[in-house]
Amino acid sequence: MSNHNHSRDEAAARSALITTHSYDVTLDVREAADPAVEGYPSTSTITFTAAPGSATFLDFISGGVQSVVLNGRSLDVNAVVDRDRILLEDLAERNEVTVTGMALYSRSGEGMHRFFDPADGQCYLYTQYEPADSRRVFANFEQPDLKASFTFHVIAPSSWEVASNGAASAGTPLEDDGVTLWDFAATKPMSTYITTVLAGPYFKATDRWEATLDDGTRLEVPLALYCRASMRDSFDTDELFKLTKSGLEFFNRLFDYPYPWGKYDQAFVPEYNLGAMENPGLVTFTEKYVYTSRATDAQYQARANTLMHEMAHMWFGDLVTMTWWDDLWLKESFADFMGTLGVDRATDWDSAWINFASKRKAWAYVQDQLPTTHPIVADIPDLEAAKQNFDGITYAKGASVLKQLVAYVGFDAFVDGSRAYFRKHEYGNTSLQDLLEALSTASGRDLTVWARQWLQTSGISTIAAEIVEDDGVLGAVTLQQDAVDPLTGDQALRPHRMRLGLYEADEAGTLVRTESFEIDVSGPRTLVPELAGKRRPALLLVNDDDLSYAKVRLDAVSEQTVRRALNRIQDPMARALCWTALWDSARDGVTPAASYIAAVEQFAPGENGIGVLLNVLGNATLAVDRYVPAVSRSHIREQFLGVAARQLMVAAPGSDQQLAWARTLAEVSRGGTSQLTLVRALLEGSTVVEGLSVDAELRWSLWQALAAHGEATEQQLDAELAKDNTASGHAGRALALAARPIAGVKASAWEAVVHGTDLSNEILGATISGFTLAPRELLEPYIEPYFENLERVWQERSIEIAGRIVRGLYPGAQDLAPGTRPAGHPVLTRTDHWLHEHKQAPRALRRIITEQRSHLLRALTAQATGHVHTA
Fold first, then answer.
1. pLDDT tens digits, residue range 754-796?
2. Which H or E run contains 198?
3. 3-state DSSP call for residue 541?
C-alpha cells in the first residue's frame, strides 16, 4: 500500500520541525530515447536545519533507492525506506542528506513524462508536478511551505535542448560520445512543485524583453519558446513573443515589483494534463495551443488568457505561495482574475470579460451546484483532496469573487494591497489572513465579514426581480436573494455590488440600455426605490455588466423579451448574460431544454461574438444528448443538425462562425444520422464549402461521427492516420476506433482502459471518449463492472489516470422513462448503494462518484421537465 497521500497535519508537523535551504539535483536521462529503459538515475542533495535529535521523512516515489547518506553517514536503505518515504532520524541542527535512486519515466503526465513523437520517432521529456509529483523525479520534502534554492544538473544527449527554472551553462561534454552535462544556475527560494526540467530535440526560438523601471533600473529578461520539432511550422513565435512582452510590461507596472525570476521560457509540450503550469523561469503549456489546424479567434484569445494567467503566477503563487493547499485560491483565483484582466488591458481583444462571463463563470456555476462544492478557502486534509480542488470553485468562482471585491473596495485599493502583499511576503508563504490584512489596510475597510460571506461559505446565490407595476409603470421593485450553503443547510446570503440595466427597443428595433443603476444587494429582499415610477422596460437585466457572482432569473416580461429578441440586444455583455440566464433555467429544470435549443437555433446564427457562439453551441449539444427526453431527442437532434448544416452553407466563407457550425455538425452527428451524407461528402471532397478548410482536426471529428454509426472501418481510419501521423492524429484515431458500435470493439476498449496499462494519458482519454459513444444497449453490460472495479482502479493507478477512468466511464448518459422519478433511476440507485457500502473508500474517489451522480440527477431532472411540457 502506498503512503504517498500524506496529510496537512503531517506537513504542518514537518514544517514546524525543519527549515529547508538548498537542493542540488542531478538527473541522468542520456538513455531516455530507448523505450526499453524504464527509469533514470536521480541524485538529490538537500541541506536543511532541524531540531537536534529529531526525526522526519523525505518523499520519493521511485523505482528503487540505492543509497541514503545523512551527514556523512551511509544509512541502511532497507531500514529507512518505507515505501514512498525515506525516514531520517537523529538529525543535527544543520543537516545534509543525499539520496540516490532510480526515478521512473511516466506516461500519465505526472513526474517526468516521456513521449515518442509518431511523426519522427524522437523522444521528448518534460516534468509536471502540481500538487506533489516532484517526488517522482527526485527525493525532497514535498510541501509548498518548505521553500529552498534549487540547482539542477541534467545529463542528456548533446543534440537535445535542455532547460530548467534557472539559466543554463554552455554545457560540458562528457566522456561518453554525444552526451553533455548541463548545469543550471541556482534559483531563488521556491516550492518543490514549481521546479521543472525540459529535455529533448525541441525547437527553440529566442527573444528578449527590456524595460526601464520607475526608479531608473534597467530590467532585461531573456525569452525563449519551445515546441516539438515536428510542430515547428505551426509555431507562431512572433505572436507568442508579442503577447509575452505585453504581459510582462503590464504586470511589472501593475504590481510595481520587477519580474523576479531572471529568464522567461515557455514550452508547449505533448500529452499535457493541464492547460499550463507556472514553473518560474520555464512555464509549460499544452501543445494544443500550437494550432496545427484552423483555430478561431476565441481559441487564440483563450491561449492569451492562459499565457497571462501563468504570468500572473510569477507573483501570485511563485513569489508568494500558500502555506498549504487550503489556500490554493490565493494563487489560482488571483491568476484567473489577472489573466482576464491582462487580456483586457494589455492586448487588442475587447471581449475578455464577456468570454469570462459566458464560459469561465459557467464552469464555476456548475461546480458550485454540486453536493461536493466547497468554500473558496477550502478544507484540504491531504494531497488527494488537493488534487481534486483544482476546480471551478478555486479558479473561476474565486476570480468572480475577486471581481466583486474590486467593485467593493475599488481597483486602486485592490492593486495597492496586492503590492504591499508582495513586498511583505516575497519568497514566503501565506494564508487568507495575510492577504486580508494587506487589502484591508489599502482600502480602509475591514474585510473580515466580507471574507466570511464570500470566501468561507459554499453555494451560489440566485437573484430575481419581483416587480409590481400599474399600467406599464413600475411600482415596488424588489430583488430577492436565495442562497443556501449546501454543506451546512444554512442561509448564506451575501452582499452583492451589482448593476440593474433597463433596456428598450430603439427606432430600429435594437434593444439598447437606456438607464442603469448600481446598487448594493444584501439580505433576502432588497428594495430598489430608484425604479419606482419609471416606465416598465422591455428588459430589466439584473447584474448588468456582470459585476457579481450569482445566478439570475429573468422576470416574466424580460424572459419573454429575450426569447423573442435576444439577437437584437446591442450590448455583447448583456447578450451573453441573457444566454447564461436561459441556460441556467434549462439546466435547473425550470424550463425545458428544448426551449434553450430552440433559442440557439433562432438566435445563434446572428451571434457575432465567437466565444459566446462556441459556448452556446456546446450547451445546445449537451442539452440534446443529456437534457432532452429520449422520446423527443431524435427529432430535436435532427432538427438541430439541419440548422447546423444550413448555417455551415450560408456563413461567411472562411469565418470563425462557419468553422463553429462545421464543428457542431460533426459533433452532433455522432448521435444523429440526417447529415451523415454531408459528413462523408465533406471528407471525400465531393461537397466543397467555400472558405471551409477541412483540415486534420475537422477531418478526425467527421470520421468520429461516421465511426459512431459504424460507417468507418479500421482500414479507413488507418489510411487517415497515414495522412496525419501526428500525436493528435493518433488520439483522433483512438477515439474513432473505440466509437464503433460493435460489442467486441467496446469490450476491447474497456479491457485496455480498465485492466491494461499500455495507454498513455492522452490515448486513454481518447479511448474513453470513444467508448462512451454508443447506443445504451451496448454500454449497459458495463454498469456493474464499473462499480466492481472502482476501488481496484483507484488503488492500482496514479491519481491522474484513475481520475480519468472513474470520471469518464461513469454510466451517466442515461434516460428517464416517462412517468418515473429521477431519484429512482436504477443507475442512481446503484450509485447510492456503492456509496453506502464503501464509506471508507478514499475521499477523493467518493467525491468523483458523488459529482457524477449529481450530473446524472440534474440531466434526469431536466428530462422530467421536458416530459411535463411535452405532455
1. 999 999 999 999 999 999 999 989 999 999 999 999 999 999 9
2. strand 197-200
3. strand
Place of cell 526515478: 103
Q: SS3 for 477? A: strand
| Collapsed DSSP state (helix, strand, coil) of residue 265 | strand
Q: Kindly state the cell numbers that stand for 519.
A: 446598487
Angle among Cα 664, 670, 671 to the nearest 5 degrees reads 105
Question: How many DSSP H helices and E strands does the chain contain?
Answer: 29, 29
> Is the pTM for the entire model greater than 0.85?
yes
B/e letters for 540-579, b = 16+ CB within 10 Å, e = fewer, are bbbbbbbbbbbbbbbbebbbebbbebbbbbebbbbbbbbb
Task: Give the largest CA-CA distance in the chain.
Answer: 93
Q: Are 505 and 535 in contact (CB under 8 A)?
A: no
Alpha carbon separation from 438 to 404, 447, 515, 799 (Å, rounded): 17, 10, 36, 37
Local structure of residue 472 (DSSP, 8 states): T
Contact 334, 402 (CB under 8 A): yes
Is the N-terminal amide bond of 537 cis, ω within 30° of 0?
no
For the segment 671-688, what is each residue's pLDDT rounded down to a tens digit?
999 999 999 999 999 999
Residues with a known catalytic role: 310
Backbone angles phi, psi at 713, to 5 degrees: -90, 165
For 22, 439, 571, 614, the CA distances from 355, given in Å and listed in that order, are 43, 27, 13, 10
Return the residue matching grid coordinates 450553503. 485
With a CB cutoff of 8 Å and minimum separation 6, the contacts of 495 are: 408, 450, 453, 520, 521, 522
pLDDT recorded at residue 652: 97
Long-range pairs, 839-844, Cβ under 8 A, ≥24: 841/790, 841/791, 841/794, 842/5, 842/384, 842/794, 843/381, 843/382, 843/384, 843/385, 844/384, 844/385, 844/387, 844/388, 844/799, 844/803
Q: Rounded to whole angstroms, what are the CA distances from 74 to 61, 71, 759?
A: 20, 9, 39
DSSP state of 695: -
Tens-place pLDDT, residues 385-402: 888 888 999 999 999 999
The whole-angstrom separation of Cα 23 and Cα 45 is 6
pLDDT tens-digit readout, 796-841: 999 999 999 999 999 999 999 998 999 999 999 999 999 999 999 9
